[in-house]
Amino acid sequence: MFSRGGSGRHARDDRDRSERPARGSARVPQPDERRYGPYDVSEAPSGVERLDLGSLQIPAIPEVEIRVQANPEGNVQQVVLVNGENALQIGVFAAPRSEGIWDEVREEIRKSLFDEGVAAEETQGEYGVELRARVRTADGLTDLRFLGVDGPRWMVRGVFQGPAATEPSRAGVLVECLHGLVVDRGQEAKPVREPLPLRLPKDATDQVHEQQAEPAPPAAPAPPTNGSGPAPRRRPSPRPR
User: Fold this and answer.
1) CA 140/CA 8 separation, integer angstroms
2) Please, what are the domains in the chain?
3) Is the distance from CB of 125 to CB of 138 less than 8 angstroms?
4) Is there a contact between 125 and 168 (Cβ–Cβ < 8 Å)?
5) pLDDT at residue 3 above 60?
6) Sorted alphabetically, which InterPro entries does this protein's record hold (predicted)?
7) Do 133 and 120 contact (CB within 8 A), yes or no?
8) Tens of pLDDT along 204-215?
9) How much is the pTM?
10) Half-sphere exposure of 7 (CA within 13 A, CB side)
11) CB–CB of 118/133 below 8 Å?
């Protein structure tokens, strides 16, 4: 849902953007206007234990499980926070310094859902306008709630699933994670909307390499073509400590 390259007006490098917000665009809140995060790394409160994933630092809350999908080199493709029946998927993207892009991104998400036959509803949430939609998955109908937070040269997108998708008051400690999130954008120029790099901590990356070095188990017999045989067991993915 996030375009890269091409002829879109956000396709060029963010250095070419004017520092003055365009008409109708969202203004990025200044540090002294923020009562809670996501924070830019330059304004983040100190003395908080966080899991460092590079461009994202996630507060360590005992009740929250942090699930990541990463390649063998430790580069993270997906981050999902889980608490009970609720899940919060988090992504972080490059953006201009002073012009927010959530309004435009939200409209593209809405259009993409509409093209798939899904009607999305705009609602007012803690961070401004959100999108709610009910989509069909392999497990049946699933409610989703999309939110966006514009920061200095970055945007955080969150997607709630579970009871918190329709009742924000039931998000519980996942909201605390969002409030305590820290973004380390870095100084190098990046195309607007490009995902900011995420990586596993070194000890978790070493764990991936150790598992790859182990001898592979004997190949399991092929299941019957009708799918009635037992599914082959998968080795658990390593998780950051």
Assistant:
1) 35
2) 14-183 (3.40.1000)
3) no
4) yes
5) no
6) DUF3710 (IPR022183)
7) yes
8) 655 544 444 444
9) 0.73
10) 0
11) yes
How is residue 165 written in tokens? Answer: 């998708």
Tens digits of per-residue pLDDT, 76-120? 999 999 999 999 999 999 999 878 999 999 999 999 999 999 999
Under 8 Å between Cβ of 76 and 70: yes
| Rounded CA separation 131/109 (Å) | 9
How far is residue 92's CA from residue 90's CA, in Å, rounded to a whole number? 7
What is the CB-side half-sphere exposure of residue 169 using CA atoms within 13 A?
A: 0
Question: What's the pLDDT tens digit per position in 49-65?
Answer: 999 999 999 999 999 99
Q: Cβ neighbours of residue 112 under 8 Å, at least 6 residues apart?
A: 1
Residue 131: alpha-carbon gap to chain centroid: 15
Name the CA radius of gyration of the chain, rounded.
20
In angstroms, the CA 173 to CA 65 distance is: 11
Strand 182-183 versus strand 39-40 pairing type: parallel
Q: Which residues pair with 57 in a beta bridge?
A: 52, 182
